[in-house]
Every structure is written in structure tokens, then in C-alpha cells.
Amino acid sequence: MSMAIRINKTGGPEVMEYVEVEVGEPGPGEVRVRHAAVGLNFIDVYFRTGLYPQPLPGGLGQEAAGTIEAVGSGVQGFSVGDRVAYAGRPNGAYAEARVMPADILVKLPDSISFDTAAAMMLQGMTVQYLLRQTYPLKGGETILFHAAAGGIGLIAAQWARALGVTMIGTVSSEEKAALAKQHGCEHVINYKTENFVERVKEITGGKGVPVVYDSIGKDTFMGSLDCLQPRGMMVSFGNASGAAAPFAVSELASRGSLFLTRPSLGNYVSTRADLDATAGDLFAMVESKKISIAINQRYALKDVGQAHADLEARKTTGSTILIP
Q1: Residues 251-280, buried b or exposed e (16+ Cβ, 10 A)?
Q2: CA end-to-end span of the chain
Q3: Pairing relation of β-strands 228-236 and 209-214?
Q4: What total of structural domains would you count in the chain?
Q5: Do the domain assignments include residue 288?
Q6: Position 275 in a domain
């Protein structure tokens, strides 16, 4: 038997229950992984609240790192004892151990700790596809990235700096502004005290930016469009403040023939080759010290309710991990 978090209904942090579960043996194409650390991400909140539906009762969590305990038939490339990490569905990472499909696992370099891996896989691979694939940055651009002091934002700031890109980031406090600057964000806007659209235009000499990366949603969506240059791209990859309101497609034309995309990590790592390439790029950036992972919060797995409450209240910065 093993301990895990389960939900029987959607709702607030209180719906998460710390319960004993039977893990079982892996079937064909599966492995059993003993977790050393589990990542906390805002997408977990979406599943907990029901914004993103899933069958219930069910688990939560899409990111963890640990050691393979057992390997099912037909699994190639993995053995008992391998250090591994993953990010992606199916949900269920909030657990001491789990049986899961082997095809979302990657082997973890010895130079990267379990804690670091659990804190960076989903966020780091998200930054990789955003900056290197969705809108491939070449260097010399000035970009807008919302939530610059969050886990994704701090990684993005470092990656942008390594690429020679100037990042404008938004934050909600002066403390978060200082943190974003420490990690390479060149211009930081406190959206509680400044109009971010006006500041972006000021910073760019009225031109706007070629791309906006927006994980906030409702509160920033239309303003983000207004920050773009003609033919710029709006990359909407989250809804931390709620889903953006519907709008007429003609809004894109009237603002300068803009592009809008709503990507998700799963579509960028859907093949073994894509997954290994994306994770490998992230591992290389971390191993080269161009990116450091800021683990600013640690909670026991059983205290995940408090972790979710703090995340939703925007009390967290950088990455957060749960310790089974």
C-alpha cells in the first residue's frame, strides 16, 4: 500500500484527500515509479476545480521525479533502478508511487537532482516549446512575458537572456519584481501600480512587441493583444485569472493582422523523438548553468491543500515541490 492524493469531486483545496491506495504491478507498456519529489503546477488547480474535466474519482499532478521499481512487458529503454522524470498526463503524480505509461518518462542525468527535476520538467519544457518552437526566438527581440516571477517566468527570463532576447515581465509586487530582475528580466512592470500596455509601448518606443506569452487569461488577454506589433503573435498558454471572454475574430484584423495560438505541452512532446529533444534541450541549459531552478516552496505531500491555497493566492514564487 502507498499514500496518494485523490479527489472524489471538484472544488476547493479541501476536496483533496490523503489516502492509502493499492499501487499494483505495471502492465504492458507501463512502469512503477517511486517518487522522490513531485511538482506543483497551476494546471493541477484547473483539474481540481473542474475547469479541465477528468473522470472522478481520480488523482492530480502531472510532474515528478524518482526511481523505477518495476517494468512491465514491452517496455524498451528503461530498467529497474533508472532515475527518471516526467511531465504530462495522465494525472496521478501526487503519490508516493504510481504505475504509469513509460512513454512519457525521460531518463534523468546524474547531475540533476530529483528535487530540481520535479520542479522544472513541466515548467522548463513549457518554456522550451514557447521560446524555441511556438514563436522561435532568434535573439535581438523584445518580448512580453506575464507572471515573470512564477516558476515558468523565472525559467523564461533566464532562457531569454541566454538567447540574447530582452524580456519585459509583469509581476504583482515589488518583491516579485526584484526576483524577476535577478533572473534576467530586463524590464519589470508591476501591474498593480502601472498600466502594462502603456509601459510596454513606452519601453518599445511605441512599436510594441512581436510576441506576448500570456498564462493569465481573462485579466490580461485584451491588453496583451494591444501590446503587439502588426502581425505579432499572442501566445495564450494558461488561464490563471480565468478564461478569457469570447471576442470577435475581427479584433485580430483591427489590431494589425495579429496571430493567436493556444498551445499545450502535450502536442509538442507527443512522440518519443520530440519528448527527448525538448527535455534534452532543457537538461542542457540546466547542466550548462545558463538556467538555475528556483525551488522557493516545499510542502509535505499531505499538506497539498495549503500548497494549492498559497498558489492560488499568488503567494508563491519560482517553483514549488511536494515531498512524499
Answers
A1: ebeebeebebeebebeebbeeeeebebbbe
A2: 14
A3: parallel
A4: 2
A5: no
A6: no
Instruction: Count CB atoms within 10 A of the CB of residue 63.
Output: 29
**Could you tell me the CATH number of the domain that includes residue 13?**
3.90.180.10
Do 145 and 257 share a structural domain? Answer: yes
Please indicate, yes or no, if residue 306 is contained in any of the structural domains. yes
Residue matched to cell numbers 498558489:
311
For residue 130, being part of any structural domain is answered with no
Q: pLDDT tens string for the chain (324 positions)?
A: 899 999 999 999 999 999 999 999 999 999 999 999 999 998 999 999 999 999 999 999 999 999 999 999 999 999 999 999 999 989 999 999 999 999 999 999 999 999 999 999 999 999 999 999 999 999 999 999 999 999 899 999 999 999 999 999 999 999 999 999 999 999 999 999 999 999 999 999 999 999 999 999 999 999 999 999 999 999 999 988 888 889 899 999 999 999 999 999 999 999 999 999 999 999 999 999 999 998 999 999 999 999 999 999 989 988 999 999
Structural domain boundaries enclosing 144: 139-262
Q: What is the CATH number of the domain that holds 183?
A: 3.40.50.720
